[in-house]
Amino acid sequence: MAKKPLSPLKKLRMLQNLTQKELADILGVTQDTVANWERGRAIPRLTIPQFKTLLVVLKVAPEELPDDFSPPRTYSEDTSIMQSEDN
């Protein structure tokens, strides 16, 4: 079975050797919130201080952050979405 692609946020978090819980604690959100961002189930809604903290913790510039934190969709996910839209 093929591995699912990692979300950009998860890649950045793992580069800093942080767990979801550690990142959540630093940002003042729950671990479930971080997990939902990484799975594409929720869009991050950060305050400016939280955003600045995220940049510092992940060691990235604002332009280096991806527009979408969720994992890239696979071909099968795209075709199933297109099929459901056709019905």
Automatic annotation (TrEMBL):
This is Putative transcriptional regulator. The lineage of its organism: Bacteria, Bacillati, Cyanobacteriota, Cyanophyceae, Coleofasciculales. Residues 9-65 form the HTH cro/C1-type domain. Signal peptide: none annotated. GO terms for molecular function: DNA binding. InterPro entries: Cro/C1-type_HTH, Lambda_DNA-bd_dom_sf. Residues 77-87 have a biased composition (Polar residues). It comes from the Bacteria. It holds the Pfam family HTH_3. Residues 65-87 are annotated as: Disordered. It comes from Allocoleopsis franciscana PCC 7113.
